[in-house]
Every structure is written in C-alpha cells, then in structure tokens.
Design goal:
This protein is mainly beta. The chain contains one helix and five strands; from the N terminus they run E-E-E-H-E-E. It is globular, with a radius of gyration of 12 Å. The two termini are 22 Å apart. The model has no long low-confidence stretch (mean pLDDT 92).
C-alpha cells in the first residue's frame, strides 16, 4: 500500500491506474471516495490478473483491510 496502512475496515474506491506486472499480477492505484480518507490514493498489487488494465480504469472497487492486510474487489 502507499505510505501508511489504512485502519481495518472497508473503503469505497475507484481505479485511477492499472498495469500488468511480472508473473501475471496487476498493480493498481485506487482513490478512496468516501469517509475520512476520501481522496487518498492507495497502491495495491495482486499476484493474479484482475483483467485488462485499460478495462479496469475508472472501475469502482472495494478495499477491505483485515488485520492490517489489504485486499481489493473490483465492483463490475
């Protein structure tokens, strides 16, 4: 993630940048759209492909942080 970890919880976001990474994963930059962290950009990477990076741009997403570990779901 970016500079400091988010607190455990669920955050609404949208994808502002996406790229394929070596090994078949996807690197995302997401902007949080609600709450006290609104406007914050968070960088996350997956080990598996989340789809075509161009198709992911602008997609809504949900970031979930549990025990300090983030995950993301693209809300198609």
């Amino acid at each position: 993630m970016s500079d400091a970890l988010l607190d455990d919880g669920t955050y609404d976001a949208f994808v502002v940048d996406a790229d394929d990474v070596a090994g078949g994963g996807t690197a995302l930059e997401l902007t949080i759209t609600t709450g006290e962290h609104k406007g914050r950009v968070v960088a996350l990477s997956s080990t598996g492909s989340l789809g075509d990076p161009v198709d992911l741009l602008g997609m809504p997403a949900t970031i979930t942080v549990a025990d300090g570990t983030p995950s993301v779901r693209i809300d198609r």
